[in-house]
Amino acid sequence: MLDEQIKKEIKELVENAKIAYISSIDNDGYPNVKAMLNLQRESFAVHYFSTNLFSKRVEHFKRSPKACIYFCDADNFKGMMLVGEMEVKEDIEHKTMLWRDGFEIYYPDGIETENYCIFKFTAIRGNYYHGLKNADFTAEELLDIV
């Protein structure tokens, strides 16, 4: 069970993280990690990322949705790992939701760009690390962090 202090630290960690590290499983069964912009979340258990539809990562997640994301504060030795599943979203609703000014550099046709898609990550469980202590938790325990 997550105590209030750990919930507070998780909230600060995720809100201050500019980058999240995303892991997928490649065609040979090996983990692959990629840094992605921490753009938006539905809750502390559901996170969204934008990417190229034609990327290797999309291929990985379409084959196996098993995923891991990691948020870290390297200066203070804090980290949170979430394990769950990644969905590839190509619908206009998700693409519009995550669109940001400046994306047109990468996606010249805006949200209609064929190569633009969204990842929706839904956690199943996680682990928070700080001060030589680990706290395991379920995704449900993240739902009351506001």
Write structural notes for this entry.
This protein is an alpha+beta fold. It has one domain: Pnp Oxidase, Chain A, CATH 2.30.110. 19% of the residues lie in helices and 45% in strands. It is built from three helices and eight strands. Strands 1, 2, 3, 4, 5, 6, 7 and 8 form an eight-stranded antiparallel sheet that branches. 22% of the residues are buried. The mean pLDDT is 95.
Brief characterization of the structure:
The protein has helices at 4-16, 56-63, 92-98, and strands spanning 19-25, 31-37, 40-43, 46-52, 66-73, 78-89, 116-130, 133-138.
Present the secondary structure layout.
Blueprint: H1 4-16, E1 19-25, E2 31-37, E3 40-43, E4 46-52, H2 56-63, E5 66-73, E6 78-89, H3 92-98, E7 116-130, E8 133-138
Antiparallel strand pairs: 1-2, 1-5, 3-4, 4-7, 5-6, 6-7, 7-8
Keywords:
146 residues, Pnp Oxidase, Chain A, eight-stranded antiparallel beta sheet, 3 helices
Poorly predicted runs are none
Global geometry: globular
Question: How many domains, as an integer?
Answer: 1
CATH homologous superfamily grouping: Electron Transport, Fmn-binding Protein, Chain A
